[in-house]
# Entry
Amino acid sequence: MMNKIHFEQLQETLYHETLENGLNVYVLPKNGFSKTYVTFTTKYGSVDRTFIPRGGSDFVTVPDGIAHFLEHKMFEKEEGDVFQEFSENAAAANAFTSFTRTSYLFSSTANLYKNTKTLLDFVQQPYFTEKTVEKEKGIIAQEITMYDDQADWRQYFGTIANLFKNHPVRIDIAGTVETIQDITAEHLYECYGTFYHPSNMVFFAVGNVDPDEMLEFVKKDQQAKTFEAPEPVERSFPEEPDQAAEPRSELFMDVTKPKLMIGTKCRNTDMSGKEMLIRELASDVTLDILFGRSSEFYTEAYNRGLIDESFSYEFNLENGFGFAAIGSDTDHPEELEKLILSVFDEARDRWSITGDQLERIRKKRIGLFMRALNSPEYIANQFTHYNFNDMNLFDVVPVLEQLTTAQLQEAFRDFYYEGGQTVMTIRPTEQGK
Amino acid sequence: MFDKTEIRSGVTVYTRPTDQFKTISLAIKFTAPLTEESAAVRTVLANVLEDSTAQHPSRTELRQALEELYGAVFYTDTGKRGDEHIVTVYAESVNDEFLRNSEGPVFERLLALVKESLFEPNFVDGQFSETIVEREKQSVADRIRSVYNDKTRYANKRMLELIRPGEPASQSANGTEQAVLAVTGESLKAAFEDMLANDRIDIYLLGDTDTEELAERTAGLFPFQDRSKERTEPGTTAAQTERSQPLHIREQQDMKQGKLNIAYSTPVTFQHPDYPKMQMMNGVLGGFAHSKLFVNVREKESLAYYCSSSYASQYGLLYVMSGIDAEQEEKTAGLIDEQIEAMRRGDISDLEMRQTLALLSNSIRSAFDSAKGQIEIFDQYKELDENFRADHLIGKWEQVTKEDVQQMASGLTKEITYLLSGREAMDDE
# Structure
């Protein structure tokens, strides 16, 4: 049965149906848009490395980088490269792999159903051979090498690796040039079989699309294909201590200015749904108040020349891991570190966030969300991300409207505590000589 | 797509009522000739203007005011087009109908802030505050230096400097570090007054509102005076350098990947009637995942993760960029040459033409699905076509034949092969 959910304040209507094979299909029409953005996403990312394969009974651990490798290989079929078919039908196609998701997508302004068919078919018809797997290793090795030269990337993932002792979030999403050498076609089939069942996936179409037609189209397509019965996926994750694995680390790279990043780790990540959404938004708002462009910290750090335009901060929460990261290029990494930690310590020891501060940032966040709804890409990707954690993207405004300072403090206490931080510094190569 | 009203000589307002977005957007574009000095001083100016105003005399106060306006966006940016330098003031807020807000129209209050930034700047004794000026000089200088840290961008910048030294094609819209540090309070104020009085000004308003009424109000709000239109007649610089043979330059840094870039010049620039043919040519060669470079360099030979081409139409340049194992330089460069040779021989399939037309059309239509996309693309094309619409350009691409594409490929002259790579890779040779 198709559900229709109207959001009055947002003036948006979401259509949803769970198909017989377990696939969740969502459609959000947007007036005035030329393009339709369609994503087909599996709840399978780089952290899912230890699991019971479909039909098996024991846990296996697969080589690092395999979810991303699989994503690359989905595009190659016996009859050639799927990009060719998308291009012929005027669709720009792409895919990405994150810690927890692999998403396949296209954006097109014509031939919507032909392209939808191509998307559904190529993701649901795996074709891997030893030869095509070997060939991909060179391409992915260059992708990894490209990221190896990007200081921002190294710092971000270095910070995460410092924070986590055991959790696989500490492993590079694409693996390393060495680990991908061990990947075989057999591995890919094993992972595919386990994680690409429709019941582990979400289909989202947004933009210039008729919801009834699209739901009907996907339903017919899925009915014509045969799938095994849905089975829950059994994943295994190691115990993770609250303490950061490494309190600090340093790296030398060919950059003009040192980079500092401070990471802090969430203690409680075993949550989902509304509770998780409140926690995520409360953490975002707290960081805005402490470190945003209107904060005392920002003014002081900018005026003292401790941060520049590269300054940024973010908060990430998934079931099983969560962290905040704050960083900037800086000529004075020691001073900046001190200042950031003093803001954190001050908030911990003398919590003083006021209702006025919350009110202002609440408005800012509501506006930010409304503006983001202009973007089909944001809607599809963010909705799917939330959906896999049983959260609803369209609850963001109501949750923001009801957020309390007590919730901010609770969120803060969960991501800032003794021993849960790390400092990652990248220094120009010449400083290491 | 935009309604045009010239409110003063050299000051034009473009409006577009649309309910596509949940926001109302404003862009004010100030255009002046591009030089190293003008780029530098105007970029520092752009930073200083978005820092504070007379009524919101600190960064914090201005940012808090924007947060109160439901996170309204207000920022400045600089760019270049041909031999022109553009300062853009950009503002955007959520349309009131989506806000449970009792404090009056948000966009109007945002407009007032934008007006303050331009007409009531944060002056101390008739000058910009020295502290702010010095800080923003540092900030812009940092931004210029930081290109070095992004090896892909750095390699492209170096390549352009080698083939077009001192010309607009290789100049940064931020100016040079030296020119930025040479900016003074006086030169900044002079540049500010010059910008307000003499620049060509294009104002864009877009959103679900009575844009006509808004345009009138905006015209009343911003007291720009008439100005001469002579200053910045659009032009491009396609200086063809006389070079007996292409340059081959290798440079090194501490890095792992090799960045192999190759640049070609073409007599076809943005204003040239063959411009749509060159766009098709670039698409067949390396604009997309069906293009010759992606298929042959990446998919068939596994040499690269990225290998693509871009057409810098303002400067009559086309460049190929790839990230490779530096030891594979010769092989990759040979393969890239082969793709261009194939196109010169007319080795272009109907499928490649169809795919390229389809994806070019898709990309321009999709770009119109954002407010900023509509403003930026229209602003670029309006000099070619006052009533520009995506369909006009698509119609031209549809006319392009394989022979046209072949001819465009034949008109390319290789100017440089540039490799930026790690020290170890070179030491091994």
